[in-house]
Amino acid sequence: MNDRPVYVTRPYLPPLEELLPHLREIWEGRVLTNGGPFHQRLEQALAEYLNVKYISLFNNATIALLTSLQAMRVTGDVITTPYSFVATAHSLLWNNLNPVFVDIDRETLNIDPSRIDKAVTKETSAILPVHCYGNPCDVVRIQEIADFYNLRVIYDAAHAFGVAGPGGSILQYGDLSVLSFHATKVFNTFEGGAIVSQSEKMKKHIDHLRNFGFVDEVTVVAAGINGKMSEFNAALGCVQIRHIDAAIRRRRDIEERYRTELRAVKGIRLLNPSDNYSGNHSYFPILINDDYQISRDALYERLRSNGIMARRYFFPLISNIPMYRGFPSADIANLPVANEISARVICLPIYPDLQSADQGRIIRIVAGD
Ligand SMILES: *Cc1c(COP(=O)(O)O)cnc(C)c1O
Predict the structure, then answer these.
(1) Does the Cβ of 177 fall within 6 Å of ligand 1?
(2) pLDDT (tens digit, 9 = 90+) per residue, 251-297?
């Protein structure tokens, strides 16, 4: 085997020449961070691109999640999904909040709204759902439940960059939505993230929390954090955004080919994308059923031994990781669907410059030819 390894994702980068003039501007202006000109330009460009009113850039999505929970003054129990990246639940532990895991829906792999009611306690103050793989949660139903019990809703929208339906951006739902611009995500600034909020007052509050709680030179209103995005990352974002539509189109074509060529493979289930929303094609999960020729882990090993570094996102389930196992809601009997999906899933490589021959190789291995 002398093919080079193919990873589950390969960060998208713009032509370096497009970044250089921006870097020169930074070098000459000597404004490196603290809401400089590129920070302002990127906030505005993203607000326009994403079609949202209020967005606050962050140095990464994890700090943005921590800040969101502080901004909404979330306390006690928080209802969330076990089927996500660990940062979702970690943001709760870092705020001394108790995660309450609710099982996922078998079709969308997002939190199952019909199970949220039963998980609400006197201590519940918020719901932290995830738009898993960029597939929208049932935002309308979740808001109804939140309104009934007077709960805040903070979406971990790390996968949901650019996802929009007839009513507009998915990011307009809930109180806040958190985006990630990590290298592995659809839109990247190397490291980065953002919070989308729904009022100018809340955006201001978030901006203060992001900068240690400073309102002006001498006034500190909260025990804030350092969540600022540097000018370097913001300048990169200003260039990346010129290419994002083309990058998403490439992803869409790759997904299309996977769907066409894997549709008929016995024992594999593909997720059905939402009819109402245009996705961002950020992940391509396949579910390995019992009637597939080998086990999920055997396929995973077979891919790896052929240089295809597919990933079992999300395995292990957050609720099965040691620091979460002790929470009552982490019981496997409470989360049958999430446990099953986590044992069946493999995410196949999908990224704008995935080579056609490499994708062909992946398809042949999965199809068992
Ligand atoms: C990537 C990711 C995060 C963390 O984002 P960072 O920008 O790396 O901090 C949080 N939640 C989910 C669902 C993610 O996929």
Answers:
(1) no
(2) 999 999 999 999 999 999 999 988 889 999 999 999 999 999 999 99
| Span from the CA of 311 to the centroid of ligand 1 (angstroms) | 16
**Using an 8 Å Cβ cutoff, are 136 and 277 in contact?**
yes
**Architecture of the domain made up of 16-240:** 3-Layer(aba) Sandwich (3.40)
Amino acid letter, 119: A
Angle at 290 between CA 286 and CA 293, to 5 degrees: 80
DSSP 83: S
Question: In terms of pTM, does the model score above 0.85?
Answer: yes
84 CB under 6 A from ligand 1?
A: yes
Just give the CATH number of 244-367.
3.90.1150.10
88 lines ligand 1 (CB under 6 A): yes
Residue 124, strand partner residues: 77
Which residues lie across from 177 on neighbouring strands?
155, 196
Ranges of CATH 3.40.640.10 domains, the chain: 16-240
Joined together, the tokens standing for residue 51 give: 């079609």
Virtual torsion, Cα 164, 169, 171, 172, nearest 10 deg: -150
